[in-house]
C-alpha cells in the first residue's frame, strides 16, 4: 500500500487545495502517512507571499533530499504559489523534485501518478466530510497591488459557475457540513468573467436556500469592490454570518496609492461605517503591512491611528517583504530597516491585543450562538457567527450542533463558557 504526505503552508486557499488533493490521492489508492519519512509520495503545497514563507518551503525541500537518497523510488512534488509558469529554475535548484505543478493543476499530478486521463472533476467527491468546509469560488487575481506576487503565480481571475458551486455545497451538506466559507483572493469580483455576470450577492442568495446549511461566510473582500448590493444582501440573508474580512493594508493615502490599492482612507472609513450601519454586531478583520517602501514615521502613525479609530476584531499584521517581479520590488527601495518594521509590527500587535481584549470582554455574561466543530483538549470547540473561537466543557456529543453558550471568560483571541440553561 502506497502512502502520501501533504505539507501545507499559507492561506486558506492552499489549505482547501490540500484537502482536495488528499481526496484525489485516496482515489488513486494512496493512504495518508503521519510523516514524510514514511511516505512514498510527498507533496509540498507552497506559499511565497512573503520571504519568510518561501524560506520555510526551501528548508522543507532541502530536508527531503535525504528521503530521496534513502528511498529513491519516493516521489516528491511541489505545488502552490512557488511554482511559476517556467519551472526550469526550480528544477535546476531542486533536482530531487519529480514534479512541479501550478496551484490546482491536479490533472498534471493525476496523469503523472496514474498515467491516465484526469476524470471529470464533477465526479470527484470534493472533500472529506467536515462541519465547516472551504469552497473556492474564484481563482487568481487581476489587481496587481504593487507588493503582491499572487497575480503572477495564480494568474487572472477565473470564477466557477454558480451551478457548480451550488452542487458542491449541496454535496457537502449531504455529508454533514453545516458551514461553508467561500474562498477567493478577491471574492467581491466573483462572476464578472461568467455569462450573465452573476455576482457574489446572487451566489449567496442561491446558497442561502440550501436546506441543512446553517452558516455561510466568504473571504477575502476588497475594499474597492465591496458594493452596497452585497452589503445589503449580507444583512438580509439569515445564513450569512456577521463577519467580514476587509484588508486595509495602510491608513495613509500616499502609501495606499503606492500600493495601488484603488481606495483612500476616506472611502475605506465610509465603507466601514456603511457596513456597521447595515449589519449590526458585525465583526471586521483586516490585514496591515508595516514598513512598505518609503513608509515614514508619520505615515505609519496614520495606520496606527486608523486602527485605533476603526477598532477591528482581528488584525493580521505583516512586515513588508519585497517579492521578486512585483512593481514594488522592481521600482521601490525597501527603505525601512528590519528592526524598524519589527517595532512597528509590535506596536500594531500590542494595540490590537488591547482593542480585542476590550471588544471581547463586552461579551462576558452574554449568550452566544456557537456551531460546534469538534473537541480540542477535552473541550468542545466552535465559533460564534462573528468567527470568535469558543470553548466549553460538556459530556454530551455536540459535534455539528448549533448551541447557546453563556460566556464566562474572555481573552483577545477566544471565549470560554458553558451551555446556557435550557439549551
Ligand atoms: N487578496 C487579499 C490578500 C492576499 S495576500 C487582499 O487583497 O488583501 C494576504 C496578505 O498578505 C495581504 O493582505 C497582505 O497583508 C500580505 N502580503 C501580501 N504581499 C505581501 C508582501 N510583499 N509583504 C508583506 N505582506 C504581504
Ligand atoms: Fe494580492 Fe492585491 Fe490581489 Fe490581494 S488584491 S491577492 S493583495 S494583488
Describe the structure.
This protein is α/β, with parallel strands linked by helices. The protein folds into three domains: 118 residues, Methylthiotransferase, N-terminal domain (Rossmann fold, 3-Layer(aba) Sandwich); 240 residues, pyruvate-formate lyase- activating enzyme (Alpha-Beta Horseshoe), CATH 3.80.30.20; 53 residues, Nucleic acid-binding proteins (OB fold (Dihydrolipoamide Acetyltransferase, E2P), Beta Barrel), CATH 2.40.50.140. It is 35% helix and 22% strand. The protein has 14 helices and 18 strands. Strands 2-1-3-4-5 form a five-stranded parallel β-sheet, with helices on both faces. The chain has a five-stranded mixed barrel with strand order 14-15-16-18-17. The chain has a three-stranded parallel β-sheet with strand order 6-9-10, sandwiched between helices. A hairpin with a 2-residue loop joins strand 14 and strand 15. Helix 8 packs parallel to helix 9 and helix 12 runs parallel beside helix 14. The chain starts with a strand and ends with a strand. The chain binds S-adenosyl-L-homocysteine and iron/sulfur cluster (SF4). Iron/sulfur cluster binds next to helix 6. The site of S-adenosyl-L-homocysteine has 17 residues, from strand 12.
Amino acid at each position: 500500500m502506497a502512502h502520501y504526505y501533504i505539507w501545507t503552508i499559507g492561506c486558506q486557499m492552499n489549505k482547501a487545495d490540500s484537502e482536495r488533493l488528499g481526496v484525489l490521492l485516496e482515489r488513486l489508492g494512496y493512504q495518508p502517512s503521519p510523516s514524510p519519512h514514511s511516505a512514498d509520495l510527498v507533496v509540498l503545497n507552497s506559499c511565497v507571499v512573503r520571504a519568510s514563507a518561501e524560506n520555510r518551503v526551501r528548508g522543507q525541500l532541502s530536508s527531503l533530499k535525504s528521503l530521496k537518497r534513502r528511498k529513491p523510488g519516493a516521489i516528491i512534488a511541489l505545488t502552490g504559489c512557488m511554482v511559476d509558469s517556467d519551472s526550469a529554475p526550480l528544477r535546476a535548484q531542486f533536482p530531487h523534485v519529480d514534479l512541479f505543478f501550478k496551484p490546482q493543476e491536479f490533472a498534471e499530478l493525476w496523469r503523472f501518478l496514474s498515467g491516465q486521463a484526469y476524470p471529470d472533476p464533477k465526479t470527484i467527491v470534493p472533500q472529506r466530510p467536515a462541519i465547516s468546509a472551504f469552497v473556492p469560488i474564484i481563482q487568481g487575481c487581476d489587481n496587481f497591488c504593487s507588493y503582491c506576487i499572487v497575480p503572477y503565480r495564480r494568474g487572472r481571475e477565473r470564477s466557477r459557475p454558480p451551478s457548480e458551486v451550488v452542487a458542491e455545497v449541496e454535496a457537502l451538506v449531504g455529508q454533514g457540513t453545516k458551514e461553508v466559507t467561500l474562498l477567493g483572493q478577491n471574492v467581491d469580483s466573483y462572476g464578472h468573467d461568467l455569462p450573465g455576470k452573476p455576482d457574489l450577492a446572487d451566489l449567496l442568495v442561491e446558497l442561502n436556500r440550501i436546506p441543512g446549511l446553517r452558516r455561510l461566510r466568504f473571504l477575502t473582500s476588497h475594499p474597492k469592490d465591496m458594493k452596497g448590493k452585497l452589503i445589503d444582501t449580507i444583512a438580509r440573508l439569515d445564513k450569512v454570518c456577521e463577519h467580514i474580512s476587509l484588508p486595509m493594508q495602510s491608513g495613509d493615502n500616499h502609501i495606499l496609492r503606492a500600493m495601488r490599492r484603488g481606495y483612500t482612507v476616506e472611502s475605506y472609513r465610509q465603507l466601514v461605517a456603511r457596513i456597521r450601519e447595515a449589519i449590526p454586531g458585525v465583526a471586521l478583520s483586516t490585514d496591515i503591512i508595516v514598513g512598505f517602501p518609503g513608509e515614514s514615521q508619520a505615515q505609519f502613525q496614520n495606520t496606527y491611528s486608523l486602527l485605533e479609530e476603526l477598532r477591528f476584531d482581528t488584525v493580521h499584521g505583516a512586515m513588508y517583504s519585497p517579492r521578486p517581479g512585483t512593481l514594488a520590488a522592481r521600482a521601490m527601495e525597501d527603505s525601512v530597516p528590519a528592526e524598524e518594521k519589527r517595532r512597528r509590527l509590535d506596536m500594531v500587535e500590542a494595540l490590537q491585543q488591547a482593542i480585542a481584549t476590550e471588544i471581547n470582554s463586552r461579551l462576558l455574561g452574554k449568550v452566544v450562538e456557537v456551531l460546534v466543530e469538534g473537541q480540542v483538549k477535552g473541550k468542545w470547540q466552535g465559533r460564534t457567527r462573528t468567527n470568535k473561537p469558543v470553548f466549553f466543557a460538556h459530556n454530551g456529543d455536540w459535534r455539528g450542533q448549533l448551541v447557546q453558550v453563556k460566556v464566562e471568560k474572555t481573552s483577545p483571541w477566544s471565549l470560554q463558557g458553558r451551555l446556557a440553561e435550557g439549551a
